[in-house]
């Protein structure tokens, strides 16, 4: 599932590609991916413009010139492609937004969605989300307050969107590895020094992942050399049985609250 770095990569690239361009049409092949009538969706978009693209947690927000906001959550298996009909991958798109000869294809929206909301609805929708880990104002003392609000283990807490926004399975494991802390540790057992290591690791991992386009492999457009470059840089995620890059011991995969979790039992404590 795309996490904060993947959605931030999409935000940055789509801002350059479609922001301010007139929407010439739209197509919906799976109405369940929307929360409004398909015809109304197409009518609202046609002739409109996306004037701003933001990210909140694992969501993208497309702000329309007419004040409606499209809220995208790709969930498991969802991704996007921007290009001509000849360039598009041989995959079914559930929603397509047209920009002349180029199109934005929303692919794999079986669990994901593209909903249309008013600004007040969006504010209510995101009201229960936790703080953004990369916000400039999210300081270490504020991070400590968040840590002190829970007593569960680190893995479960990091992927809880009401705890922190945007972190999922991949980056929770990568953050714990860089911090040298076991993801199974209970939050109350962390020392202040370990809390600080965790905070610094969180910023380091997320910023590095954004720099290298996240871990999703599907390119956003033909010639896209950024998207997915972090996949090869993952230290522990999906590397069960491989030697730890830090100490050489074999990495472990464990299921924690129905989530897969990867770590090194030797150099994480």
UniProtKB/TrEMBL annotation:
Transmembrane segments: none annotated. It holds the Pfam family Fapy_DNA_glyco. Residues 2-112 form the Formamidopyrimidine-DNA glycosylase catalytic domain. InterPro entries: FPG_cat, FPG_N, H2TH_FPG, Ribosomal_uS13-like_H2TH, Znf_DNA_glyclase/AP_lyase, Znf_FPG/IleRS. Gene3D superfamilies: 1.10.8.50, MutM-like, N-terminal (3.20.190.10). Keywords: DNA damage, DNA repair, DNA-binding, Glycosidase, Hydrolase, Lyase, Metal-binding, Multifunctional enzyme, Zinc, Zinc-finger. Belongs to the FPG family. This is Formamidopyrimidine-DNA glycosylase. It comes from Paenibacillus ferrarius.
């Amino acid at each position: 599932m795309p996490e904060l770095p993947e959605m931030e990569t999409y935000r940055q690239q789509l801002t350059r590609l479609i922001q301010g361009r007139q929407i010439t049409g739209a197509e919906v092949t799976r109405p369940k991916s929307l929360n409004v009538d398909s015809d109304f969706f197409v009518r609202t978009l046609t002739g409109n413009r996306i004037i701003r693209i933001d990210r909140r947690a694992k969501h993208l927000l497309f702000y329309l010139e007419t004040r409606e906001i499209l809220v995208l959550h790709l969930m498991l298996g969802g991704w996007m492609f921007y290009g001509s009909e000849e360039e598009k991958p041989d995959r079914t798109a559930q929603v397509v937004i047209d920009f002349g000869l180029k199109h934005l294809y929303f692919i794999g929206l079986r669990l994901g969605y593209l909903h249309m909301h008013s600004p007040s609805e969006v504010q209510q929708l995101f009201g229960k989300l936790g703080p953004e880990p990369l916000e400039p104002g999210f300081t270490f003392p504020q991070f400590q307050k968040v840590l002190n609000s829970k007593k569960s283990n680190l893995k479960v807490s990091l992927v809880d969107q009401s705890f922190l926004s945007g972190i999922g399975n991949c980056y929770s494991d990568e953050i714990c590895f860089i911090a040298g802390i076991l993801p199974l540790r209970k939050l109350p057992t962390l020392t202040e020094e370990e809390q600080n290591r965790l905070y610094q690791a969180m910023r380091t991992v997320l910023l590095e992942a954004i720099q290298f386009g996240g871990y999703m492999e599907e390119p956003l457009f033909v010639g896209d050399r950024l998207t997915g470059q972090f996949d090869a840089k993952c230290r522990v995620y999906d590397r069960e049985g491989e030697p730890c890059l830090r100490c050489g011991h074999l990495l472990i995969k464990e299921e924690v609250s129905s989530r897969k979790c990867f770590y090194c039992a030797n150099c994480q404590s």
